[in-house]
Specification:
Helices cover 69% and strands 6% of the residues. By secondary structure, it is mostly helical. The protein has a domain of 109 residues: Arc Repressor Mutant, subunit A. It comes from Bradyrhizobium niftali. InterPro entries: HTH_MarR-typ, MarR/SlyA-like, WH-like_DNA-bd_sf, WH_DNA-bd_sf. This is MarR family transcriptional regulator.
């Protein structure tokens, strides 16, 4: 009996494990992607797209720098604002950072479970909670600030230079405040 080469290949593929075939598809896709990058066209000139891509890269670097402390950019921002604004309530902090209430509650739950901050019922408005850093939160924030300055921001400064960094902050602040 004669079997065609196509039938032999089909039989080989059907005997492969699912992980092997998935790996093969991934390898083939990576090889094709490496050989032929997608053309972005006008997308590469869209400010929103470029901002998002830059933001993703900046956050990836931030997370690598903060891996030992397990802090996200949002958590770091909350700790900074609580430090600089003692006695302010959680609604004010969330609003300033543009974090929705349900997301902010989950974020605070995480920080509290790690003993980095605490919610204290306000003496002025019993419906409201003020936020304070714990001693552990103060210590973690001190270490985080050093890591951000020496690793994360230093890398951005090296890439951009001081004048471009200041200009970029000014332009992005204009968009954030006026757009």
């Amino acid at each position: 009996m004669t079997v065609s080469k196509t039938a032999d290949k089909t039989a080989e593929k059907s005997s492969e494990k699912p992980a092997d075939t998935a790996k093969g598809r991934k390898d083939a896709a990576e090889a094709q992607g490496a050989a032929e990058a997608l053309q972005l066209g006008e997308l590469s000139e869209q400010l929103g797209y470029v901002l998002k891509r830059a933001q993703l890269k900046v956050f990836e670097n931030f997370l690598r720098c903060m891996a030992s402390l397990q802090l996200t950019p949002a958590q770091f921002s909350v700790l900074l604002l609580v430090e600089k604004n003692p006695g302010r309530n959680q609604t004010e902090i969330a609003s300033t950072l543009g974090i929705l209430r349900p997301n902010f509650v989950a974020l605070l739950d995480n920080l509290e479970s790690r003993d980095l901050c605490a919610r204290i019922r306000s003496t002025n408005d019993r419906r409201s909670h003020i936020l304070v850093l714990t001693d552990k939160g103060k210590a973690v924030l001190t270490r985080a600030k050093k890591l951000v300055a020496t690793k994360h921001e230093a890398r951005l400064n090296d890439l951009l230079g001081q004048a471009n960094r200041e200009a970029l902050i000014e332009m992005l602040s204009k968009i954030a405040n006026e757009f």
